[in-house]
Design brief:
Layout: E1 4-6, E2 18-19, E3 22-24, E4 35-40, E5 44-45, E6 49-55, E7 62-65, E8 69-71, E9 76-77, E10 81-85, E11 96-98, E12 104-105, E13 112-113, E14 117-122, E15 125-126, E16 131-137, E17 144-148, E18 151-153, E19 163-167, E20 173-180, E21 188-190, E22 196-197, E23 201-206, E24 215-221, E25 228-232, E26 235-237, E27 242-243, E28 247-251, E29 257-264, E30 270-277, E31 283-288, E32 297-303, E33 308-314, E34 317-321, E35 329-333, E36 339-347, E37 352-358, E38 364-369, E39 372-373, E40 378-384, E41 389-394, E42 399-401, E43 409-413, E44 421-427, E45 432-441, E46 448-451, E47 455-456, E48 461-467, E49 472-477, E50 481-482, E51 486-489, E52 493-497, E53 505-507, E54 510-513, E55 518-520, E56 524-526, E57 538-540, E58 554-556, E59 568-576, E60 579-585, E61 602-610, E62 618-625, E63 628-634, H1 637-640, E64 649-654, E65 678-684, E66 687-701
């Protein structure tokens, strides 16, 4: 056994030199006086001999060792040499010789050697809570036994100079042990032998495979030491049905996965099973009905069906598992857009099984009537399972959406531009079924629109290009508002002013002829915004021209709010003081070089929709660069105290209205090519609820 002693004991030099283990006294020798020249060794063992060398030492009456231990019995006593045995209670400190001529105190400290040593440990393997016996030397000085991973024990029963007994902590790990004397600069003695802390072991898992939520039995040894059990997927179990040394019973978590079982003890050591635990999977025996109708309930039979947590149909569409299922039967709602194919059933364990092919019910067309008609007339389609139909496709490419389809009949209006040919119904899952009969389109005088703007605003004159436009008697805008102002009107061109009372948002324009025939435009967006004349002058559109930083808001695309189906910037928060909305650096996608010094011929435009009244602060537009830091403050609510738009509007700001000094200075930008720092919009100068949408921030050249 080799004991490694950690700690340092030193003897300070009192005089000019230290000779070996003896310390030289600083006393000057005199023939008639008692002189201590040196003493040692230091460190010295308790029970060992301590020697003093000098003159007239036979006159010494006692030696006082620290702390105040007086020794009057000498192994040797002569004028030149004094030898004593060091008592067990001696500690570090100075030594005093009592003499008739007065006390002589050493200049240097006496150090006591405490060679704590471990000679044996028994047993070398034990369970947490069991007692091991350590034998060695000076074990009475031990204040702590430290097990692996710094687990100290400070209570020993019994403890003597040669033996101590210590209980293994519940969280101790296998490793060497360390003995400490407990001082602030402690002596630490490591054992050379390893103390093995017993761990649990698994010999059998049953059943295997096992079903989630059922009882799993582990057999093995020392299983009563287990604190936690980890299943595959990191799922932890901390409470058990029963626990003994040889058997552990527990409930398998619902989301446990395949893999090794790990036993965790109090020391955090993990013990892994040799075998993988396999999670049971559902077995699909049948699907009924097959074919099944989209939107109907599908009955699934089999075993372990209560493990199913998700169902995926053809097309990757997820079905909803209905309540009341059992281990042998469940019902699943078939998604409206599911397609034919296999069905995949997933479990919480991350496993899945696949059924055989499941077919979706397909509608049939028995007849279409009338077989000959003009466009914009009503058409009846009869058949079966027509309640699955969401659209009707006509020859020529026109589609109409079906409202409230019946199971055996649907009615639609034949749109303008339809050509003679078969009719195709399209179901919610994209299945197309063509009619066996063909539709004959009779000639009519319905105008045909070939070109028109898809975005417009009230008061704007729009131009329609097409055929037979001179036959129109009424142009009816969304909200059933008839146009009353027209420009040029020919067979191929019609100019019409969008009424001010039009309903804003998405809608269609109806065109009525003198024969009371009508047609409709494609879907258009009517708002209060100006069209973007030059897309290359847009510098924020939040699709490909986005913000780099800001304090509030994000790109959003809500069909109910979007101008044209693309992204916009949405802010919806209470703002107080400086709040950056959207910004970019330098000249990144900033078309200012196109304008240069021609600032008087350009304006800044942006589209905004203020959803809740703004009551304070300003929106601050910024162009910052080497020429200066220029601002424009927009706050239409400043006079009235509250401002809200009725949908989207376009704000127009001349570039010459920008000013330095936060918008209140006298200098304006003269060369936009020098805007090379940052640009964007912030809220500042007050507090308000800011619930707004912003889009299409751009430059536009004046006409």
């Amino acid at each position: 056994m080799i004991n490694k002693v950690k700690g340092w004991l030193a003897v300070p030099v009192a005089c000019l030199m230290v000779f070996g283990l003896l310390m030289t006294s600083c006393q000057k020798e005199k023939d008639t006086t008692i002189v201590l020249s040196s003493y040692g060794p230091s460190p010295v063992l308790r029970g060992g001999s301590l020697k003093f060398i000098g003159s007239n030492l036979d006159l010494v009456t006692a030696v006082v060792l620290p702390a105040n231990i007086e020794v009057t019995t000498f192994e040797t006593k002569s004028p030149e040499l004094l030898v004593i045995t060091v008592p067990e209670a001696t500690v570090d400190g100075k030594v005093t010789l009592k003499t008739p001529q007065g006390n002589i105190e050493t200049k240097t400290l006496l150090k006591i050697s405490e060679p704590i040593a471990v000679t044996a440990i028994a047993p070398l393997q034990a369970r947490p809570g069991e007692v091991i016996t350590i034998t060695g030397t000076y074990l009475n000085l031990v204040k702590a036994v430290i097990f692996a991973k710094n687990k100290p024990v400070t209570v020993f029963t019994p403890q003597s100079k040669t033996e101590l007994q210590v209980k293994i902590p519940a969280d101790a790990q296998t490793g060497i042990i360390v003995l400490s004397n407990g001082e602030s600069d402690p002596i630490l003695v490591e054992s050379e032998m390893t103390v093995t802390v017993t761990l649990p072991a698994i010999t059998q898992l049953s059943p295997n495979p096992v079903k989630a939520g059922t009882l799993l039995t582990l057999q093995g040894t020392n299983l009563d030491l287990v604190r936690d059990v980890l299943f595959g997927g990191g799922k932890k179990v901390t409470s058990f049905v029963s626990k003994t040394g040889g058997k552990l019973e527990l409930t398998v978590p619902a989301d446990a996965r395949d893999g090794k079982i790990k036993l965790v003890v109090a020391s955090e050591v993990e013990v892994e099973s040799a075998a993988d635990l396999v999670m049971a999977v559902p077995v699909i025996a049948g699907l009924a009905p097959n074919p099944v109708k989209n939107g109907a309930a599908l009955t699934v039979t089999g075993t372990n069906l209560d493990l199913i947590t998700s169902v995926s149909f053809g097309g990757g569409k997820t079905g909803a598992i209905l309540g009341g299922g059992t281990a042998t039967e469940i019902k699943v709602n078939v998604p409206k857009d599911a397609t034919s194919g296999t069905v995949s059933f997933g479990t919480a364990a991350g496993k899945s099984v696949t059924s055989g092919s499941l077919a979706m019910v397909v509608p049939t067309i028995a007849s279409i009537s009338p077989l000959a008609l003009k466009t914009n007339a009503g058409l009846t389609i009869a058949g079966t399972n027509l309640d699955l139909v969401v659209k009707v496709l006509f020859t020529g490419g026109n589609q109409v959406t079906v409202a409230n389809p019946g199971e055996s009949e649907i009615m639609v209006t034949v749109p303008s531009g339809t050509l003679s040919g078969p009719v195709t119904v399209i179901t919610s899952n994209g299945t197309e079924v063509a009619s066996g009969e063909s539709l004959t389109i009779l000639a009519s005088n319905v105008p045909v629109i070939t070109s028109m703007p898809l975005t417009m605003k009230p008061g704007q004159m729009i131009t329609l290009i097409g055929e037979k436009l001179n036959l129109l008697t009424d142009v009816i805008f969304p909200g059933e508002v008839k146009a009353t102002m027209f420009g040029e009107k020919t067979a191929t061109k019609l100019e019409v002013v969008v009424p001010m009372a039009v309903t804003k948002g998405k809608g269609k324009i109806k065109f009525v002829t003198s024969d009371n025939e009508f047609s409709e435009s494609p879907e258009v967006m009517i708002s209060g915004v100006d069209p973007v004349k030059d897309p290359t002058l847009v510098f924020f559109n939040f699709d490909n021209l986005n913000s780099w930083w800001g304090d509030a808001g994000a790109a959003e695309n809500d069909a109910a709010l979007s101008l044209d189906g693309t992204n916009y910037w949405r802010v919806n928060k209470q703002c107080s003081g400086w709040t950056g909305l959207f910004w970019r650096n330098g000249k990144n996608d900033f078309p200012a070089d196109r304008i240069g010094t021609d600032v008087a011929q350009y304006v800044v435009k942006f589209d905004i929709n203020i959803l809740e009244p703004m009551t304070g602060g300003q929106l601050r537009l910024r162009f910052n660069g080497s020429e200066g830091d220029f601002w424009y403050l927009w706050a239409p609510w400043a006079e009235s105290g509250s401002y809200k738009t009725d949908g989207w509007i376009t704000v127009t700001v001349p570039i010459t209205d920008f000013r330095d000094q936060w918008g209140s200075g006298s200098n304006q930008p003269t060369d936009l090519s020098k805007v090379d720092a940052d640009f964007g919009i912030a809220f500042d100068g007050g507090a308000s609820m800011v619930n707004i949408c912003i889009d299409n921030m751009r430059f536009e050249k004046l006409d």
